[in-house]
Write a structure and sequence with these properties.
The chain is of the alpha/beta class. The protein is about 40% helix and about 15% strand. The strands form four sheets. It has a seven-stranded parallel β-sheet, with helices on both faces. A two-stranded parallel ribbon has the order 6-13. α4 links the parallel β4 and β5. It starts with 5 loop residues before the first strand and ends with a helix.
């Protein structure tokens, strides 16, 4: 990215925004701000030099001009409800008045495609959500794209597959003892490592194309029980038993993920944004998670050794 001064504001400073913010802070000329609903998270964000606002989905931010001041890049990562995206509903008009925005990103979901009986879909495929989650995302997409269509705002839509990464992968599920190997013949999930999400977002910031829609997923849709099996192999743990989907006692949310069956094309992020995935499949991604954990553990060990030396 250019060394010119940029400011990123994230609505819903969660897992993906945390990785993006941390990456941009290492580059010259970036300042980061965002919202959270949690006071403890607010304190953590402020310790990371992130200007933080509380946004609770019930009340708009008190001073829109303050939070939008000098913002050049806006990322929305808030979950929608039946009425659509809360940021659009509460602050869409405020964002329209803001003239410095060079890029707006909305993090959506591949759930907008609905169930396709295992067939492939790309960004030109019809939106046919078959779940409440997908319907809400489709409505939110339509809302944000209206700001591009009607007013020319630089809106970009990113349809994310299942997100995983350090601290949020099958490795963690196995260690926690909650992983289940559920088999539904012919069913596959598409996934994406958080670092590759950041790669796509930054490539889009570098080469904005207002109105664009991108699928963000890896090259290898796979069944969930395959992923759990590989996590077990990496950790040297015993495989959980394989359970038929019909026999699995799943909560409604988990069951809804299995009701949609599709495979996602990701050619557009490569051809249009020039993205090369660091983790093109779940095996590379899980190995990357394990490597990241080892690096973090080594860093903590070094810090503890330094403290011991200083105290001795």
């Amino acid at each position: 990215m250019s060394k010119k001064a940029h400011k990123l504001f994230c609505f819903g400073y969660g897992y993906c925004c945390d990785y993006l913010g941390s990456t941009l802070q290492k580059q010259a000329g970036w300042s980061i701000a965002g919202t959270t609903r949690d006071l403890n998270k607010k304190a953590q964000m402020q310790e990371q030099n992130i200007k933080t606002f509380i946004f609770d989905y019930e009340q708009p931010l008190n001073d829109p001009d303050l939070f939008l001041k000098d913002v050049t890049h806006l990322l929305i990562s808030t979950p929608p409800d039946d009425y659509g995206d809360p940021v659009f509903l509460m602050h869409g008009d405020d964002i329209l008045r803001h003239k410095n925005l060079q890029w707006i990103g909305y993090l959506s979901s591949t759930s907008v495609y609905g169930d396709r009986d295992g067939e492939w879909v790309d960004e030109t495929s019809e939106i046919r959500p078959t779940s409440k989650r997908g319907s809400r995302r489709a409505k939110a997409e339509e809302q944000w794209l209206s700001l591009y269509k009607n007013s020319g705002l630089p809106v970009h839509i990113f349809r994310l597959a299942g997100i995983y990464g350090p601290g949020r992968s099958a490795l963690d599920s196995m260690r926690a003892g909650i992983a289940r190997r559920i088999e539904k013949p012919g069913h596959a999930f598409s996934r994406i490592h958080v670092n590759d999400i950041i790669n796509v977002l930054m490539a889009s910031m570098e080469h904005p194309k207002p109105g664009a829609i991108y699928n963000i997923c890896d090259d290898c849709a796979a069944s969930s029980h395959e992923v759990i099996a590989y996590a077990c192999e990496l950790l040297g743990m015993e495989l959980p038993p394989l359970i038929s989907f019909d026999d699995a006692d799943l909560v409604p949310m988990a069951r809804s993920f299995y009701n949609d069956n599709k495979r996602i094309y990701n050619k557009k992020i490569k051809s249009e944004l020039g993205v090369n995935l660091h983790y093109p499949d779940y095996k590379a991604g899980l190995r990357g998670c394990l490597e990241a954990e080892n690096i973090t553990a080594q860093m903590k060990k070094c810090q503890n050794n330094k403290k011991t030396i200083l105290l001795s």
